Amino acid sequence: MSWSERQRRAIEVRRKNLLVSAAAGSGKTAVLVERVIQRMLDAAEPLDIDRLLVVTFTNAAALEMRERIAAALGKELSRQDLPADRLSRLERQLALLGSASISTIHSFCQSVVRQHFHQLNLDPRFRVASQAETDLLRRDVLEDVLEKRYAEDDAAMLLLADCYGGERDDAALGAMIVELYEFSRSLPEPELWLQGCLDVFAPPEQAVFDELPQAGLLLRQAQLRLGALNGAADQLLDLAELAGEKEVQLAQEYAAVIADLQAASTWSQLEAACRQGEKTAYTRLSGGKKDPAGQEARDAFKHWRDQLKKQLEKVYVLVDRPGEELVEELRQCGPLMSALVEVTLDFAAAFREAKASRNMLDFGDLEHFCLAVLRDGENPSAAAVDLQERFQEVMVDEYQDTNGVQEAILQCLCPAASGRLFLVGDVKQSIYRFRLAEPELFREKYECYPQLGDGYERIDLAQNFRSRATVLAGVNYLFRQLMDPQVAELAYGEAECLQPGLPYPPCDGPSLEGANELWLLEEAAQTAEESEEADAGEELPEGFAAEAALIAKRLQKLQEDKTQVYDKSLGGYRPLAWRDVVVLLRSVRAKGPVLLEALREAGIPAYADVDEGYFREVEVEVLLAALAVVDNPRQDIPLAAFLRSPLVACRAEELAEIRLAGPERSDLWDAVTVVAATATEAGCKAARAIELLEGWRRLARRRGVPELLLRMYRDTGYYEYVGGLPGGALRQANLRALYDRARQFESTHYRGLFRFLRFVEDMREGGADMAVARILGEQEDVVRVMTIHKSKGLEFPVVVVADAGKQFNLQDLKKPVLFHKTQGLGPQVIDVKTRYRYPGAARKAVAHCLELETKAEELRVLYVALTRAREKLILTGRLKHAAKAASNWCRQSCRREELLPAGLIAEAKGYLDWLGPALVRHQSAGELRLLGGAPQEECLLPDESLWDIHICPPAAAAAAGEAALPDDWSCVVAGQLLPDGEADRAAACLEWQYPWQEAIGKAAKLSVTEIKRRFAEVDETARVWPARAGAMYDRPRFLQAQQGPKGGEYGVWMHTVMQHMPLAGSLNEAQVREVLAELVAKEVLLPEQAAALNAAQLVAFFASSLGRRLLASSQVRREVPFSVLLPAEEFYPEVAGQEETVFVQGVADLLFKEGDAWILVDYKSDRGLSPAELAERYRLQLELYARALGGILRQPVKECWLYSFALGETILLEEAARGN
What we know:
Elements: H1 5-12, E1 17-22, H2 28-41, E2 52-56, H3 59-77, H4 84-96, E3 101-104, H5 105-115, E4 127-128, H6 131-151, H7 155-164, H8 171-184, H9 190-197, H10 213-227, H11 232-243, H12 245-263, H13 267-279, H14 295-316, H15 323-357, E5 360-361, H16 363-374, E6 375-376, E7 379-380, H17 382-390, E8 393-396, H18 404-413, E9 421-425, H19 439-448, E10 456-461, E11 463-464, H20 469-482, H21 485-488, E12 499-500, E13 516-522, H22 545-560, E14 564-567, E15 572-575, E16 581-585, H23 592-601, E17 606-608, H24 618-631, H25 636-644, H26 652-661, H27 668-675, H28 681-702, H29 705-716, H30 718-723, H31 728-746, H32 753-765, E18 783-787, H33 788-791, E19 796-801, E20 817-820, E21 824-831, E22 836-839, H34 841-866, E23 869-879, H35 882-889, H36 902-906, H37 912-919, H38 926-932, E24 947-952, H39 954-959, H40 970-974, H41 982-990, E25 1005-1007, H42 1008-1015, H43 1037-1043, H44 1047-1060, H45 1069-1081, H46 1087-1092, H47 1095-1103, H48 1105-1112, E26 1116-1127, E27 1141-1154, E28 1157-1164, H49 1171-1193, E29 1197-1204, E30 1209-1212
Parallel strand pairs: 1-9, 1-10, 2-3, 2-8, 4-5, 8-9, 11-12, 13-23, 13-24, 16-18, 16-19, 17-18, 19-23, 25-27, 28-29
Antiparallel strand pairs: 6-7, 14-15, 20-21, 21-22, 26-27, 27-28, 29-30
């Protein structure tokens, strides 16, 4: 293989600490493998392979490296002209390869810990726990620690739980403790770091805020925001000169304020400048009649003035309180943070003891124990010295993804001046900060190695052997403008620019050579309601459908054009296959299914690599429901699912029959046992279900969950059954995966069906779903849909980077307490009395650092996405307001510096906020500049890269999901006629009418109260009573005490008491008072509510003839909810004949049985109405109650009564039961 000059140097340099900065596609893995081989076969200084330590990022990478080395050794051994000594050496290296230290850092740490277990007081038989087992043990330990801390009645701990716990439980506090523990474990000395975090909250007595590190960070944040205003004042002044004299004066005032703010070099100066800026009395623009000729200029001036004001407000909000208050707030947070650190240390100690008692370690323990073995104070230990003598060179792949603990281990193995460290990586591809990787470790060496002297060297591998020159030029054009050291943590200079290294031969037919593409879809107005200021979490996928359809159309076009791709293995071109295409998303969870549907509708086979959805698969849900019933059959929902599933195969009618057979207010299991004794078909199925469950329960007591699952598969034939369904192989794979997961669970310290079900439930609630079983081969001809993170290390001829308009997920910055490696803890300040939360200085400083690091990571994620493409790069994204966005981007079209402002990069909310300002200065962005209102000649950053930028209007974007997109939008934009054949189809779409117009706006669900309010015939002269809609909420207690209960409140309380009154014997006022006292004791009523009720009114009801009939009844139902479907034409005559229905629901106060019929009673607390008026008002309501309940109970409601507490009278509605 031929090597470039720099690759050759990276392979051959000796006795130096080398840092190889290997750009995407530069062949770094091949270089690393070749260096290993050359070290073994070096004529001057040969090394046995077991004298090398090679650390890889994954086990798969370690295995691949072993295979490559074995293949290289085998190829060398196949030569016929080898000298005897060289042949002997090659054979020795091949024999040593199996024991060579080529592994992940965790595997290396595990070997060190096993060799020195006696120094760590560990059992040599320790095992490494799985993540699932660790999570279960962590949760149990956390519960114990919190219970003990609460039992100590520590005021600080209770206040911590009160301030940072959840509203209903302390789950939020527990999650915070675990997160802080895990974060600290990524550092070499977690306990010292935790203790050091408290120093921030104990500033000296006479401390001035300017002297604290938080002041410098907040000043930097303000300067970044002000940096986005560079040139804004000049641009405002230019517009003002076209608008008028007052506009000029106002622009000059803003320019003076901005200049004062930018001149501030300390926090105190910034604070003074902000206060002065807020007090500035700006010139008011008059609103009288003005010359229409200058209106456009005035409108533009006002627009940019408003934008500038918003940016200034972002600066003012940083300086919302004086420095003295900020210092005092730090002290105020001290006790809470001390309690948090203390409980976290307690948890760490308890967790360590729990793992030791079970003879298990987690991956973090491996790193820390290894470091404890290798370090003696500040110096390497004797074990480290032995390893230094053993390993003559340490090679680390993907060094940019290491953390602080791993870096400390490497320093113990390779002292600074040893010249035996070989590091390979690319800080521009460090995208695992969420796994607590520290890319700044790579960056520090990247910057300092060239200045450290002869013992150190940095080698830049910038030549890319993957992509076409057009793809590389496009990537370089973007990142030369975007990678700012202040924000992106790295500059993108000549050393970082990608250079083409693979010559693509000319193609006889259509190829993928050509411009990179950016497709911008403007969303329709009704889908753009979301606030621009809102941080994006997981966005709804509906708006993505048009973009997905556009992607499908573009891929179809590539196939229709019979495009050819270059195949390196063939050394020539071949037709484009679907497997040559990948669509990259930031997250596949929500939008992956939408994209798959669009591709499949277009006839494009596709597969999404999703790590979730397993527990939502029907066959898995069926088995989990069955397991839940085996554990506890008195769970109605799992039992109903089990009966309805193919395991028992009850029909819906049979399930209803079973449920109705049970005693009143019993659970479903009681009903199953009752029906099982009958000879009906439902009874046979119920008996079969009981037989199965009893057998499985007996087995579950003796054996584990895996054996139980196998028995369930065998007893029901369910495994074979799902195999006969569509997608049967995948369904069977999912059932095998459930068995494998159960077997893995049983191999841990935890066992038993209950714990397994709890483990699964925890996974589902925590969002830690599993991937659906994979049956797709690597060579399947399908379009891959995957996340950008999963694409790292892969390459595809065609790469579509989709959903570029998605906003960054900054939800982590909203947590109550933030953590940062250097800045420590950033809590929200909480006023204990008012429960008001607001960010203090520590919070703002930590949030600023985390936001910048997040933006830097997102920029690197974008770099990884774009560099996956070999021949064709396509980007797509949606805009809410295309013209407004383009106008904002065009503010940079007149910028002469290549690098975009740091403030603009830092303030970006999504990828398009970077791509737009960068591409608007390209010579191909004429359409974009036209949309943004910038002059076409303002293209000040021409480049050799090629870009095709397409802007799709809302109508076209909306139609993308319905039909194929036109190839040329120019006719639509210019207002010209559509091409032949399109006009009729467009007319049919535009003239289409919804066939059920009459049903529009008609409620499909109504409550009985709403029906009464809407449709009852009301006497226009009658007294108007406001309708009560929705729930009745109590007024504040002080209002109730001052004014007494309102009618609605009194009625709710009386209904509550009537629901709980005993129905045995006669009642007197004393007994009623006892019931009220019991309800107060049970906290059903408040004392003042019980005192307000009239016990005599309750006694009067039970003393009435209706009350005595109630007490004599053997079957009584109170507060009976019901729902029924009624013909819609009864309420809406205009929909007659359309077979529409309305869902009606309500709650009946009281039903009691008398003979073979029911008596319906409704309580009323209305005042000021006669019996006749009450009857007329509530007649429709009770008629509906009687009709619905009579149909549901299949027995007539013979009488309908009202009882008025105010009148003390029973009122019979004689005609209410006519409909029965």
